[in-house]
Amino acid sequence: MTDQDVRRDTLARHLRARIGIDAVDISRRRRVEYSSDASNYRVLPEAVVFPRTDEDVAAVLEVARAEGTVLTPRGGGTSVAGNAVGPGIVVDFSRYMTGIADIDPQRRTVRVQPGVVLSDLQRRAREHGLRFGPDPSTQNRCTLGGMIGNNACGPHAIAWGRTSDRVRELRIIDGTGANRRLADSLDAVPGLPEFTARSLAVLRTDLGRFERQASGYGLEHLLPERGGSVAGSFVGAEGTCGVLLEAEVELVELPPATLLVVLGYPDLAAAADDIAAVVSVAPVAVEGIDARLVDMVRAHGRRVPDLPRGNGWLFVELAGENTAATHAVARTLCAAAGALDTRIIEDPRAAAALWRIRAYGAGLAGRTRDGEPAWPGWEDAAVPPARLGAYLRDFEELTREHKVDGLLYGHIGDGCIHVRLDLPIATAPERFRAFLTDAAHLVVGHGGSLSGEHGDGRARSELLEIMYSAEVRAVFAGYKALFDPANILNPGVLVDPRPLDADLRLVGLPPLPRADGFAFGGDAGDLSTAVHRCVGVGKCRADTRAVGGFMCPSYLATADEKDTTRGRARVLQEVVRGELDWSAPAVAESLDLCLSCRACGTDCPAGVDMATYKSETLYRRYRRRLRPRDHYTLGMLPRWLSGATRVPRLINALAGAGTLRRLGMRAAGVDPRRGVPELAPRPFRRIWRRESENQQVTEANATTVMLWVDTFTNAFDPEIALAAVRLLNSLGYRVVVPRRPVCCGLTWISTGQLDGARARLRATLGALEAHVRAGGLVVGLEPSCTAALRADLPELLPSDPRSAPVAAAVRTLAEFLTAHPDWQPPSRPGLSMVVQPHCHHYSVLGFEADRRIFAQMGVKVTEVAGCCGLAGNFGMQKGHYEISAAVAANGILPAIDGAGPDAVVVADGFSCRTQAAHLAARQGRHLAQILLEDS
Fold first, then answer.
1. Do 271 and 309 contact (CB within 8 A), yes or no?
2. SS3 at position 254
3. For residues 29 and 22, what is the distance between their CA atoms, to the nearest angstrom?
4. Is 282 exposed, middle or buried (0-12, 13-18, 19+ CB in 10 A)?
5. 713: nearest Cα among 705, 722, 704
6. Over 109-178, what HEC string results?
7. Distance of alpha carbon 150 from alpha carbon 214, whole angstroms
8. pLDDT by residue (tens digit) across 826-863?
9. Strand 179-182 relative to strand 167-174: parallel, antiparallel, unpaired?
10. Nearest partner of 817 among 792, 863, 788, 848, judged by Cα
């Protein structure tokens, strides 16, 4: 044990004595999870604590002072400038300190604890016709504490103000351990009245020159003509002056009517030139979007409503007393603007889809149009709006000189621009410093600010010497000293800054080439590049079920950073750095509750695919080594089922013997509380021997389609395959199946047995090759197996020339049917359905075709958003039952309960049907069965 380990243990012992054992974590895994936020920086803390009360926070700060350990407060960890990482104690307020006091509708105020997520506050406020004005794109996971720390803004700041404009009172503990109530009296902080009097010249001339001057401390709020707001001056202090306990914030009224207008321009600079005409109609939001970002959204398979002509757009939201009033203003705007083209968005769904482009920005901008990784660091500079067009043109020239590229978007109405750039941080960090230095000189030359809303953090604090004189920086230091004279609160930020190129996560990171596992084709074959797709935007912490999102089911069940996609990525980043071994307990703990649902591959804007990373990790960890028991049982299940289907009655009888079943399941590494699905009396392939010649096809030269009958359909639900055959026959197709049993290798893939998976996929290619080469399509019934053929096959056999054409020929049943010009589903307007899309169906294959079928049928659909919780082998494995059930309780179970006993449960996935049967005692039906029985 090193001296540092001894000090860390001592620190933990003192902390636990004060706030409890479970509230303090010094494990390597936990420290890694909190070593980064959404920035470029990696700083391992000594401890992570989870306070429950104000007294806990005070005790943590007292221990930090006594031990000489620094402290960094943290909310959702979405800070992009390195504001929420530190080498001492990181205090996570988002776990427990999430209280929202009663809203006062008359005063339009509410008191909140620092860990409250903004979207939760907005839901509560909406009940009273109110909302909090600032709304950053991370609002479904950022916390009020973090917003106060960074002075967050968002699109509506142009009308409803920044966070500093909406804070009335703050309760904090400063660096001396003193509890302070900050409002509009300078006397709240000893020495502050005298400090303010001495600093009036600086406060009046250098600070608050324009709305988005966010760099440095917001000390202009101390001015008597601005109300002498100590609370306002504390907002944007980035955790360097005190630890927030509670905030009273002001809410604004929701407008009775809103309307979105989109204006098209030749480019974003031309749009910025027109800003005076746009803001003349008093919009509540003005956002700029570059054509390349829209192209990126489309490339990720997301629908973009029609836009007016142009290569740069302004999204302008108008508000009024009624629809007629907003339309009148919209017409005035379209006439006054110097746009190439305009469009008034009448459909609220189209407006929501367009706003989502803006929300996707932080993640999608993490890749350039050429697919290169792009990084923050210069992501929110701001200039006075009148200078924005000129600044953008100069900035384009600067990026050209430095040979970097990025996607632009931002708050054009406020003069704030977001961009991430493909700076070669890993291989040439000196270029990172050179660019940021030149960019700082550029923005200052335009009268602007290094930061417009994210704060300076570790990325830009060093550059404050370019923006501010020594006199101004001395005033900043004097302000901090009033609150934190010992500099224990988030040191290295704003005052006495760390070098901007210190602690960069990527510097010196070696590539990690393929090791006979997945090809990682989208990441140049480099696993290191793949896991570093995660830049920490934290969408995996958000509950997006209300808008159909699936990520991240384990986090929604546990509320633990360990179980986010981001937390897992951080641990794997340590592995590729060489700081952790593949077999390290931290790695196993991190990946244990990953359901391999693949939702992150679709929902994460950075394209993190944790299911693939988990499989690759298991492969590297266990290749040619003894594996866990369930890898041999569940991971090789198709092999055992091939024998079991020969004697189904015997197997079913043994599975029904309670004691014997429980013993067998324990021996297999399976939770004994699970039931054993019943084998069909005859598997499909045995039935097919007789039925294949009895197909009801009238045309002698009927087109042939191959039905991919997976292991689970064959063994447990042959009636699904038979229903599909009859459906396809009714359309005039002759159905064939592979001549011999073949497998997609899914269970081998999910347990990291990639050599075994490849062997099965090669056999599959041999069975499908001739049919596909002749132009035939392959229709899958089990979504997970269909997804494996489409996505995993080309990744595991990238050099096999048969892989790509076979993957391209694979269709879901719904895709195949909706592509047939003469097919119409049966009409059933009185039918009620609970539809559980399989995770892989949602994330890999897409569920749009199925939705179109249900819409054409006229049925009432309750579509479950989120995983069923069984997720293949996950919910069967010993140790996962409780989490599996908790995930189900977040989605499929309440949906079934709410729909009533007459609703039909529709689930194409074998896992989903098994979960519904086990936990809800409801038998699910496959789409093929629904369509056949109603035709």
1. no
2. coil
3. 15
4. exposed
5. 722
6. EEEECCCCEHHHHHHHHHCCCEECCCCCCCCCCCEHHHHHHHCCCCCCHHHHCCHHHHEEEEEEEECCCC
7. 8
8. 999 989 999 999 999 999 999 999 999 999 999 999 99
9. antiparallel
10. 848
In the Cβ-directed half-sphere of 220, how many Cα atoms lie within 13 Å? 17
Are 432 and 423 spatial neighbours (Cβ–Cβ below 8 Å)? yes
Beta bridge partners of 779: 707, 811
Query: Do 637 and 677 touch, CB atoms closer than 8 A?
Result: no
| Rounded average pLDDT per 10-residue block, the chain, 935 residues | 92 97 97 97 98 98 97 97 97 98 95 98 97 95 97 95 97 98 97 97 96 97 96 98 98 96 97 96 95 83 86 96 95 96 92 82 71 88 97 97 92 94 91 96 98 96 98 98 98 97 91 89 92 94 94 96 98 96 97 97 92 98 95 95 93 86 89 93 94 78 93 97 94 93 96 97 97 97 98 97 98 97 91 97 96 96 96 95 97 95 96 96 96 75
pTM for the model: 0.95
- Asked if 715 and 678 count as a contact pair (C-beta separation under 8 A), the reply is no
| Cβ pair 523, 533 in contact under 8 A | yes
Those residues with Cβ within 8 angstroms of residue 658's Cβ, 6 or more apart along the chain or in another chain: none
How crowded is residue 551: how many other Cβ atoms within 10 Å of its Cβ? 30
CA nearest to 792, candidates 598, 576, 554: 598
The torsion angles phi and psi of 343, rounded to 5 degrees, stand at -150, 130
Kindly state the tokens that stand for 332: 């005035």
**Which tokens hold the place of 844?**
């890999």
* Dihedral in degrees, nearest 10, Cα atoms 554, 557, 558, 561: 50
**679's tokens:** 């084998």
- Which of 208, 205, 227, 204 has its CA nearest to residue 217? 208
Tokens encoding 266: 């030749």
Which residue has tokens 């897409």? Answer: 846
CB neighbour burial string for 95-110, b if at least 16 within 10 angstroms, e if fewer: bbbbebeebeeeebbb
Please check whether residue 686 is in contact with residue 647, taking contact to mean a CB–CB distance below 8 angstroms. no
Give residue 59's region: left, alpha or beta (phi > 0; psi -120 to 50): alpha
CA angle 631, 636, 637 (to 5 degrees): 115
Q: What is the DSSP string of 406-452?
A: EEEEEEGGGTEEEEEE---TTT-HHHHHHHHHHHHHHHHHTT-BS-S
- Rounded Cα–Cα distance for residues 540 and 565 (Å): 6
Give the C-alpha distances (Å, rounded to integers) separating 848 from 83, 648, 740, 843, 863: 40, 37, 32, 11, 12
What is the number of H-type helices and E-type strands within the chain?
45, 23
3-state SS track over 386-416: HHHHHHHHHHHHHHHHHCCCEEEEEEHHHCE
Q: Which of 536, 408, 713 is nearest to 82 (CA)?
A: 536
* C-alpha separations of 880 from 199, 591, 609, 632, 926 in Å: 60, 12, 21, 17, 26
Q: Report which secondary-structure segment, H or E, holds 568.
A: helix 565-577
Residues in the chain: 935
Measured distance CA(657)–CA(446) in Å, rounded = 79
**For 230-369, where are the alpha helices, taking DSSP H only?**
230-234, 268-273, 275-279, 291-299, 323-336, 348-364
Q: 329: part of which helix (H) or strand (E)?
A: helix 323-336
The Cα–Cα gap between 71 and 514 comes to 40
Question: Are the CB atoms for 242 and 173 separated by under 8 Å?
Answer: yes
Q: Which residue has the tokens 């104690």?
A: 89
- Residues 6+ positions from 798 with CB-CB distance below 8 Å: 519, 521
| Greatest Cα-to-Cα distance within the chain, rounded to the nearest angstrom | 97
Alpha-carbon distance values, 372 to 41, 427, 522 (Å):
19, 14, 10
Q: Using alpha carbons, select from 772, 778, 799 the residue that is nearest to residue 735.
A: 778
Core vs surface per residue 243-255: b (16+ CB within 10 A) or e: bbbbbbbbbbeeb
Task: Centre a 10 Å sphere on the Cβ of residue 561 and count the other Cβ atoms it contains.
Answer: 25
Pairing state of beta strands 341-345 and 406-411?
unpaired
Assess contact for 786 and 845: CB atoms under 8 A: yes
